[in-house]
Design a protein that fits this description.
Two copies of one chain form a homodimer. Chain A is an alpha+beta fold. Chain A contains 13 helices and eleven strands. Chains A, B: Belongs to the LDH2/MDH2 oxidoreductase family.
């Protein structure tokens, strides 16, 4: 793969141009671009520029409203709804998080349902935003069905990521963001693009047989991580992201989608709570004892540590040259 | 193994006698017995009579208060604390669930922190109690460290079960209750007792090597399910059950324990929320579409279905004769 080294500022400008030239208003383009830059900054390439062509496809097809004006409302003092006006999720989330954080900080726990949005980004920046306000956060989404329940070979679940963040004293928060599939869909797609094999257990081919070929899995079905336990957690994610929000289950999202390659419409479930209000004074020092114990164990690694290390790297990022060319091409509108 | 067939009523009487003869007052003995009978009724033998000797050991050593008088209070309209008065968890939970359910039904979401208790039972009856009130429920506990973080061979996590329930229309709720270790500690102990081997990946022996011998794993360390992802979820459980409650992390519980074989003191985190308030009208029919789709897939099985099938079986349960003899022996107080 030929790569080009781009600064985060160049990555920002390239993404912003692609979104702006394809129907995003400045607010939506800005929010979307922030998710792309954060992903490339932290080394999460499958959620960075790699997603821009998909975003643009849905803007061009008209499926996603590039000028969405998300509305935030309260259903109760501790239930926030962010209605995304059929746009991409980031702007609705940026507008909703302050209301969610305020409710959780005041009452101790609160929930936000995100509806009428199209989600195509990583979840960890969203829960990190809560941890930055000294709140614990949980979030999950559920989109296209491409993961089979344990014991079967028919897709029902999305890759159904679950993210969790816990604030730490004078340190980056503890954060994980995991697909509940054995491998994230984006990573399987990248492996297929780059001609790499994937571990057995990642998925099944179109005949329901195990395979290490990511291209065959993309035609077949992914498997949940961790057997029946991961499958149960994937089910929980469907129920939270769709059942608890009133938005579409993965299978409904697919049925209603236009197949343009971008993300279908769906929901997201957010939880925020205040360790300070729940556990009381001293909670930070108490938790640091646990993290100290964890980090002292040889061979162990806290989830999220790699991202935080990447974040401190201010050098240019190596980006696939073909991808850059594709995005530059997309910056010229087809009708201009 | 020689077995004796006991009715649920006989199981009830045997457990109640053991608790009553070893320092439990009627309220605590009744609550404990209900967890034992529910476990045997639903085929969850590792949480049934099998636990009685451990319960009795901690009553006899004086570690656990058999006459505990749990107190329920609110820290905010949506934070309930159940202080177990250093007794076993079931009575505190029975007293706290109504306050948690009331808050979740009124505000949409609520949390309960359980503190100053000793937990030795399954979690599914606790979240099922919420689902019976048309609430979704989540619960987790964290006790003795016997599970190594992914990549290491030193115990840090408890088996850290996570349970979740979702209410269904005219059907038993969707419920899972999973150890975040590859296998529950109780199941490894039963495999060791019965001389069965366990799958590779269950745990490591005392030298840190993989083994299928459950007795060697009991001397070594268990592994999380699902590699680094299960390890992340086990970490989340520590943070919820101890960090968010102010109670002991697994390693602290061990440090403070007297080693009598019963459960150490720890906390529990409960979450309850109302799908009706969050998602609005029609949520039940919406979710039944998902469950219908799930159950129609060949090879798939909803978690919890086995327990609900066992529950409808009204015949006697086959119980290890040696276990019955042990419990009968425990019904005679050592000082009587």
């Amino acid at each position: 793969m030929t790569v080009v080294n781009l600064s985060l500022s160049e990555i920002h400008d390239l993404a912003l141009e692609a979104f702006t030239q394809n129907g995003c208003d400045p607010q939506n383009a800005g929010a979307l671009t922030r998710t792309v830059v954060a992903a490339e900054r932290d080394g999460s390439h499958s959620h960075g520029l790699f997603r821009v062509p998909g975003y643009v496809a849905s803007l061009r097809s008209g499926k996603v409203n590039g000028a969405a004006d998300p509305q935030i409302s309260n259903k109760s003092p501790v239930i926030v709804n962010a209605n995304g006006d059929d746009g991409y999720a980031p702007l609705a989330i940026e507008r909703g998080i302050p209301a969610l954080a305020k409710a959780a900080s005041e009452f101790g726990i609160a929930v936000m349902t995100l509806t009428h949005t199209h989600h195509f980004a990583a979840l960890w920046p969203e829960v990190e935003a809560l941890a930055e306000q000294n709140l614990a956060g949980m979030a999950c989404v559920s989109y296209m069905p491409n993961v089979a329940p344990h014991g079967s070979n028919k897709p029902l679940f999305g890759t159904n990521p679950l993210a969790f963040a816990w604030p730490r004293k004078n340190k980056p928060p503890f954060v994980f963001d995991m697909a509940t599939s054995a491998m994230a869909g984006g990573d399987v797609a990248i492996a297929a693009r780059d001609g790499h094999s994937v571990p057995l257990g990642t998925g099944l081919d179109e005949n329901g047989n195990e395979t290490t070929d990511p291209a065959a899995i993309l035609k077949g079905v992914l498997l949940p991580f961790g057997g029946h336990k991961g499958s149960a957690i994937a089910t929980m994610v469907e129920l939270l992201a769709a059942g608890a929000t009133g938005e579409r289950f993965s299978f409904e999202a697919q049925d209603a989608d236009n197949g343009d390659g971008g993300p279908p419409r769906g929901g997201e479930f957010f939880l925020a709570f205040s360790p300070s209000l729940l556990a009381g004074e001293g909670w930070e020092d108490h938790c640091e004892k646990f993290f100290d114990k964890y980090e002292a164990i040889p061979g162990s690694r806290l989830p999220g540590a790699r991202r935080h290390n990447n974040r401190s790297d201010t050098t240019n990022r190596a980006i696939d040259a073909k991808l850059i060319a594709t995005i530059q091409e997309l910056c010229s509108r087809p009708d201009s």
